[in-house]
Amino acid sequence: MKRLSTLVFVQILFALASFFYCQSLSAQDWARVTGIAAQDIGVGKNGSVWATGTNGAIYRLNGSSWETMPGGAVRIAVDPDGAAWVINIILRVGIGKLNQVRQKT
User: Fold this and answer.
1) What is the CATH number of the domain that holds 72?
2) Backbone phi, then psi, for 25, in 5-degree steps?
3) What is the pTM of this model?
């Protein structure tokens, strides 16, 4: 029983140390971008931002405004290179690169 309590103590200590370490890291600055009612947002490692709207449209952030892209989707994710991967309402997966969106086969 003593071994179990020592293990729990070490886990709690590790969790607290991790929490305080994470709190010391500097966060990125966030800015509000208006213009769409977003349902899902994805950000690539390269900084590209894509979103799906509550209306089912696909958007890409272009500077400080949203650019409407072809197609429709309910969920979105962005790979490290900035390509948007979407799932549409009939569960088809697609990929969008720059200003193109095409169905993935």
Assistant:
1) 2.40.10.500
2) -75, 145
3) 0.62
